[in-house]
Amino acid sequence: MDSKLSYKTTVDDKLKKCRQTYSILKHMHRQFPTVYKLKLLSFNTYIWPHLFSMSSIFCLLSNSLRERINSFYRCCLRMIYHLFECPTKDPHIIFHLPTLEENFRKNLMKRLSSIERHEQQFISCYIMYKTIINKTRQHYLENPCIPSLPRGRPGTHMIEFYQDTPTYFDKLLQFTIQSSSNNSTPSEDT
Q1: Residue 7 in contact with residue 63, Cβ under 8 Å?
Q2: Fewer Cβ neighbours under 10 Å: the N or C end of the chain?
Q3: Who's near 98: CB < 8 A, 6+ residues apart?
Q4: How many CA atoms lie within 13 A of 116 on its CB side?
Q5: Which residues, at least 6 apart from 140, have a Cβ–Cβ distance to it below 8 Å?
Q6: pLDDT tens for residues 2-37?
Q7: pLDDT confidence of 179, banded at 50, 70, 90?
C-alpha cells in the first residue's frame, strides 16, 4: 500500500511485469498467428501468475484500478484469439470467453472452500467476531441483553465497534457472491 492507503503501486508493479511478459505473447503472435493453444499456454505460463496474484486484493481496488487490470486482460484475449477489431464486451458475450472477474471468482471459490475444509478455526473465529458485534448492537440499540455491559447510551468507541464496517473477509465474500450472482443473470447490454 502507498501513503494514500491505496494499492495503486502494487497494481502498477504487477501490470509492469505483465507488460514485460506480454512481449513474449506478441512475438509468438507474429511467428504463429493462428496457433491459439500455444499463445494461450504462453499466457497461462508467463502472464496469468502476475494477474492471479492480484485476485485476493481485487475486491479492495477502486473501479479505475479494476478497469486497468480488465483492460490489460482483454488486450491479452484479443492477442491470443486474434480479435483485434472486436469491441470491448464482445469477447465475453459473443465468443463466451471468461471475464477476469469470473476467473478470479473461480479461484477465490477454491480458496474459500479450502479455508472451509482446512481452517475451521479461522471460520469459527470469524463467526464469533460477527456474533459479538451483533450482540453488542442488539444490547445498545434494541434491549439490554449482556449483563456485564452498562446500559444507556454507549461511548463513541462502542458505537464505532458495532457499526457495520466490513472486514476484508466480508469484502472478499461479497465479491465472490456478487460475481456469481452476476454470472447467473443474462446480460442486457447486448
Answers
A1: no
A2: C
A3: 92, 106
A4: 7
A5: 149, 154, 158, 159, 162
A6: 666 678 888 999 999 999 989 888 888 888 888 888
A7: low
Write the CB contacts of 70 (distance below 8 Å, at least 6 apart in sequence): 99, 100, 101
> What DSSP assignment string belongs to 9-55?
HHHHHHHHHHHHHHHHHHHHHHH-TT-HHHHHHHIIIIIHHHHHTTT
Burial of 104 (0-12, 13-18, 19+ CB in 10 A): buried
Model pLDDT for residues 88-145, shown as the tens digit of each residue: 667 777 778 888 999 998 888 888 888 888 888 888 888 888 888 888 888 888 888 8
pTM of the model: 0.70
Sequence-separated (6 or more) residues with CB below 8 Å from residue 78:
84, 86, 91
Q: How far apart are CA 120 and CA 49, in angstroms?
A: 28
Residue 72, pLDDT > 90, answer yes
C-alpha cell at 35: 496457433
Within 10 A of 156 (CB to CB), how many other CB atoms are there? 7
Q: Which helix (H) or strand (E) holds 65?
A: helix 63-81
Chain-centroid distance of CA 104 in Å reads 6
Residue 96, Ramachandran bin (φ over 0: left; ψ between -120 and 50: alpha; else beta): left
Q: Running DSSP on this structure, what letter comes out for residue 58? A: G
